[in-house]
């Protein structure tokens, strides 16, 4: 896998999630960061920090990205959401336009 | 989704005009009319799948609604998100007086609770806690009383209020909301308690754009309070039979009025003279008013008029030459008047007409020639007229025609080929006894048809072969008595059908139900007066969208259908025979 095909998402606690760019760009917000010419430092380094999103939630978000890709390719399973995470996950989804 | 703003009031308004009734998701009324107009969210579109991947936001909102008991308050989350949770709870009918409490002080903007079960004064405290954020509230069909309205006093930014069918609201309630001077839209349909006295509250609502008092029988004398409402654009007084000429006078200065509905009132030609100055009026509904052609003098001054409803006004040919003055009209309804052929020549110049209703007028074949130039016509009603086959040649050039009603006319098989070139036709009503298989054969080129009514036509199994050309049909009615199960084989592949009426075909058996068991889009089915038995009901288990099932005069009991509903057809809301 080439480095430019990957992107690093960093949680509030500093945890790093290295995932496929295609997956990350399921988020409209990340898509905009990575594609708008010149304006974001993120575009150059392929790194995005989310000081407001905890590690647990960011991990769940990453799982959603991959679930989304699977779903789009026809594998329509259910995406499990733990009740205790729902509210926080929703706030992150709102921020990420996901 | 996500951060999108939740201001949708305008959208909703437009929608209501375009597809009336569609927004009434939780209709309480026992009428089956809603089946035709409002298909509330079908069970399938809530399920995942169907191609589109649900956004995480949607998944979370649904999850919250499922576990709503876990949440005590949403007041800490952004209001556009709590708005979405609220909407989904209402949509999924999970909102209760208990779960409502979590929405206290959420600064929500829109609370659409129209026809929602259980809404009463005890909900008003949380509703009003949205304070100045609250912009629109729909409480139609609720138990809310005057006392409940007291709570809204401090929601001073309210723009829209809907209290349709709230029969416990009276003049006193109007007084309580008279301070909400930012209101632009207010609706109190079917209220028996509002009188002229209470309507003095309207005088303060100087920003009103839309006022709806349909079916309020005690409002005579109250319109005087609208005199200063110069921003008013839409006034609905349909079916207020107390309204007289005197009530028209205060409207004469409301020059921003665009839509005025006074159908079934006592307004005569004298009352219409007060409308002369309403230069922006584009819609005028005078259905069932005792007016005559003498009012056309006043009406022809209304240059912006596009929609004129004169249905059931007892108009005669006297003065009908004045029709030619309405050159801008797009929609003209002249149904159920005493007018004859002599009028048609005066419609010749109304070349902007898109819809013309001549239902039950004394119109024959010859003078239909005057309609040949109405090239924009999309909808033509000739039901119950004397029109026969020779008149249809005058319609064959109306290339934009989408809807044609020829029911109860003298049209026969020989004339139908004149319609074969009307390739825009979507809806065709041929509920005519003398139409047979031969006539249907002449129509096979009309492949765009979505609605075909052959209710009384003599269609047999042979004729049903032609139905295979109408693959887009959404509704089909064949009730002439000539069908057997063999003919139904040609219907079973019309996979878009939502409404199917095969009643009165007394030879149909349970085999028919087996044949149509693949028509999973069906919402309404009628096979009354046939040989259907309760043993055949099992074939209907696949029809999960079914809302209405009519099997009168069959060997089927109400409890048989009730059982089917409880085990397999949860959406079934109306059926015949009914439980005694």
Automatic annotation (TrEMBL), chain A:
Keyword Nucleus belongs to the record: yes
Principal cellular location given in the protein's record: nucleus
Listed GO biological process terms: jasmonic acid mediated signaling pathway; ubiquitin-dependent protein catabolic process
Subcellular location: Nucleus
Keywords assigned by UniProt, alphabetized: Nucleus
InterPro entries: ELC1, SKP1-like, SKP1/BTB/POZ_sf, Skp1_comp_POZ
Keyword flag Ion transport: no
Pfam families to which the protein is assigned, alphabetical: Skp1_POZ
Superkingdom of this protein's organism: Eukaryota
Pathway: Protein modification; protein ubiquitination
Stretches assigned to coiled coil: none
SKP1 component POZ domain mapped to chain residues: 5-69
Gene3D superfamilies: Potassium Channel Kv1.1, Chain A
GO cellular component: nucleus
PANTHER family: ELONGIN-C
Family statement drawn from the similarity comment of this UniProt entry: Belongs to the SKP1 family.
Protein name, UniProt field: Elongin-C
From TrEMBL, chain B:
Pfam entry (one): LRR_6
GO cellular component terms listed in the entry, alphabetical order: SCF ubiquitin ligase complex
Transmembrane segments: none
Coiled-coil ranges (or none): none
Any one of the GO BP annotations: SCF-dependent proteasomal ubiquitin-dependent protein catabolic process
Protein's UniProt name: F-box/LRR-repeat protein 14
Lineage: Eukaryota, Viridiplantae, Streptophyta, Embryophyta, Tracheophyta
């Amino acid at each position: 896998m080439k480095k430019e095909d990957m992107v690093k998402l960093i949680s509030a606690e500093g945890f790093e999630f290295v995932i496929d760019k295609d997956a990350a760009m399921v988020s409209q917000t990340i898509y905009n960061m990575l594609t708008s010419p010149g304006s974001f430092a993120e575009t150059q380094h392929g790194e995005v920090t989310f000081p407001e999103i905890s590690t647990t939630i960011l991990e769940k978000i990453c799982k959603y990205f991959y679930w989304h890709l699977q779903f789009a390719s026809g594998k329509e399973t259910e995406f499990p959401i733990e009740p205790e995470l729902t509210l926080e996950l929703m706030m992150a989804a709102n921020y990420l336009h996901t | 989704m996500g951060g999108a703003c939740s201001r949708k009031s305008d959208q909703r308004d437009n929608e209501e005009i375009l597809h009336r009734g569609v927004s009434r998701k939780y209709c309480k009324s026992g009428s089956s009319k809603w089946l035709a107009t409002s298909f509330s969210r079908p069970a399938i579109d809530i399920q995942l799948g169907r191609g589109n991947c649900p956004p995480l936001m949607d998944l979370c909102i649904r999850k919250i609604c499922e576990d709503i008991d876990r949440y005590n308050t949403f007041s800490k989350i952004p209001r556009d998100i709590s708005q979405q949770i609220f909407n989904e709870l209402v949509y999924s009918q999970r909102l209760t007086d208990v779960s409502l409490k979590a929405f206290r002080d959420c600064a929500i903007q829109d609370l659409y609770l129209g026809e929602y079960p259980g809404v009463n004064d005890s909900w008003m405290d949380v509703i009003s806690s949205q304070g100045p954020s609250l912009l629109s509230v729909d409480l139609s069909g609720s138990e809310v009383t005057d006392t409940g309205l007291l709570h809204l006093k401090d929601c001073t930014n309210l723009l829209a209020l809907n209290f349709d069918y709230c029969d416990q609201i009276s003049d006193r309630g109007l007084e309580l909301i008279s301070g909400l001077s930012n209101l632009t839209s207010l609706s109190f349909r079917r209220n028996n308690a509002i009188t002229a006295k209470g309507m003095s509250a309207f005088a303060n609502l100087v920003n009103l754009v839309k006022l709806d008092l349909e079916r309020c029988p005690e409002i005579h004398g109250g319109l005087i309070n609208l005199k200063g409402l110069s921003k008013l654009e839409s006034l609905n007084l349909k079916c207020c039979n107390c309204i007289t000429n005197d009530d028209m006078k205060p409207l004469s200065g409301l020059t921003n009025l665009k839509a005025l509905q006074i159908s079934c009132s006592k307004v005569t030609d004298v009352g219409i003279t007060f409308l002369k100055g309403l230069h922006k009026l584009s819609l005028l509904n005078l259905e069932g008013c005792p007016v005559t052609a003498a009012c056309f003098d006043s009406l022809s001054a209304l240059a912006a008029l596009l929609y004129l409803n004169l249905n059931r006004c007892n108009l005669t040919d006297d003065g009908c030459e004045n029709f030619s003055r309405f050159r801008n009209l797009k929609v003209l309804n002249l149904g159920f008047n005493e007018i004859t052929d002599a009028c048609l020549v005066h419609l010749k110049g109304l070349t902007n007409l898109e819809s013309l209703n001549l239902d039950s007028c004394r119109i024959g074949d010859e003078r239909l020639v005057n309609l040949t130039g109405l090239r924009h016509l999309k909808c033509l009603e000739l039901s119950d007229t004397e029109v026969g086959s020779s008149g249809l040649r005058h319609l064959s050039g109306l290339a934009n025609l989408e809807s044609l009603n020829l029911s109860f006319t003298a049209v026969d098989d020989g004339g139908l080929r004149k319609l074969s070139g009307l390739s825009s036709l979507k809806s065709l009503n041929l509920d005519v006894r003398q139409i047979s298989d031969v006539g249907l054969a002449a129509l096979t080129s009309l492949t765009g048809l979505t609605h075909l009514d052959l209710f009384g036509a003599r269609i047999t199994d042979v004729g049903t072969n032609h139905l295979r050309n109408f693959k887009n049909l959404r509704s089909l009615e064949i009730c002439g008595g000539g069908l057997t199960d063999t003919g139904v084989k040609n219907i079973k592949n019309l996979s878009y059908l939502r409404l199917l009426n095969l009643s009165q075909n007394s030879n149909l058996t349970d085999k028919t139900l087996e044949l149509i068991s693949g028509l999973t889009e069906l919402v309404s089915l009628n096979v009354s007066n046939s040989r259907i038995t309760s043993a055949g009901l099992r074939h209907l288990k696949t029809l999960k969208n079914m809302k209405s099932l009519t099997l009168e005069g069959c060997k089927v009991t109400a409890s048989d259908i009730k059982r089917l509903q409880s085990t397999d057809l949860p959406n079934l809301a109306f059926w015949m025979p009914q439980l005694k």
